[in-house]
Amino acid sequence: MTDRLDLAGRHIVLGLSGGVACYKAADFARELVKAGATVQVVMTEGSQQFITPVTMQALSGRPVYTSQWDTRPAANMAHIDLSREADAIVVAPASADFIAQLAQGRAGELLALLCLARPVDRCPLLVAPAMNREMWSHPATRRNVAQIVADGAHLLGPGHGDQACGEVGDGRMLEPAELRDDLIAFFQPKVLSGRHVLVTAGPTFEAIDPVRGITNLSSGKMGFAIARAAAEAGAQVTLVAGPVSLPTPRGVRRIDVLSALQMHDAVMPLAPHHDVFVATAAVADWRPAAASERKIKKDGSGQAPAFEMTENPDILAAVARLPEAERPYCVGFAAESHDVLDNARAKRLRKGVPLLVANHGPATFGRDDNTLLLVDADGVAEMPRADKLTLARALAGAIAQRLPRP
Ligand code: C5P
After folding, report:
1. CA of 282 to the centre of ligand 1 (A)
2. Is 279 in the pocket of ligand 1 (CB under 6 A)?
3. How many domains does the chain divide into?
4. Ligand 1 site, residue 283, Cβ cutoff 6 A
């Protein structure tokens, strides 16, 4: 779901070639329009066996082009005009036959013609394959796909799963929301390209007995947004997540944990293999010293049970103490209720991290927007209230600027 208009100002030519996945292209067109793009649909003859231009016109709000002999463009050159206005051409679905046409530079239909006639350095071509798994794995398709990638096309997917033919395997077109997110990511600046980023997110859960525990109200949204923003910026991202029910951002490797100790044990061996460590998790400070193996029962005495608590390891401080050669660039978070800036400055020094991001706890937990203060050795910078993904993208940029050159 996005109401950020991530594609505002983008003009997308959406090409449909023949395949059952055309039904998903209708929804994809809607997602693009909802994200702020203008969408010009171009359909091959084959695609019109699966979905009509009327549907695509209604969803995109523009008449659909289907033929190179269309007399609407003033100079009668649809193949030139359409690609000159586009920020990208996205072919979804791209059939095996259409990919073969691209590989050979054929131009027998308007859609193939305009892909060939596009200015390759200005108008990227993104291709979302959709076909049966045997067709996808056939040597001819492998050859054609390798060729179009070598010629500069970007692949979106394909996905893996149930196919319309009843088989299961690779070749499914990505879902409309996945295609939308991949296209949004495609347009983000690749400021973290080649970097490895490790993120912790969410609360931890400290067991009292097999059915109860101590946790907190962290939603994980900020950490998940940072993981997504870092992946969009070209990084390889590992996300160590406490118990939250958020979807994993595309392209992100996720490791689920429950307790602070599990989070610590997941993070420590990974940290030396990462360039950046962003600790957004709201890690419990204490845990019950020994969780009961059995559910603790009321004993009728009216006495509440007493728990001995023990302190959890500070994961961020532990990573920040690694020897320099193994230490990623560390970014801490601080959710405060009062004296946000003073507390943030003190916390940065106490944890020994170069960058500390502070926010007002009650104003961020569970919300979709936030305000951030970036505190480093040079001073303070404020990121004004915005949705968490917008802030995360800005933070990814701020981190990239502070990293030593690779
Ligand atoms: O000390 P405090 O919990 O306020 O510090 C917050 C920062 O330290 C956050 O970046 C949080 O992810 C990290 N932290 C941690 N391990 C802990 C406690 C906090 O990594 N046990």
Report:
1. 6
2. yes
3. 2
4. yes
> Residue for token digits 């020897």?
323
Cβ of 314 closer than 6 Å to ligand 1, yes or no, is yes
Pairing of strands 206-209, 212-214: antiparallel
Which helix or strand (DSSP H or E) is residue 382 part of?
A: strand 379-387
Domain annotation covers residue 5? no
249: left (phi over 0), alpha (psi -120 to 50) or beta: beta
Residue 276 and residue 159 share a domain: no
Q: Is residue 260 part of a domain?
A: yes
Q: Could you read off the pLDDT of 80-118 as tens digits, one per residue?
A: 778 888 999 999 999 999 999 999 999 999 999 999 999
C-alpha 386 to ligand 1 mean position (Å)? 23
**Residue 215 and residue 357 in one domain:** yes
> Atom 9 (ligand 1): residue with closest C-alpha?
333
- Distance between Cα 317 and ligand 1 center (Å): 8
Q: Are residues 92 and 16 in the same domain?
A: yes
pTM here?
Answer: 0.94
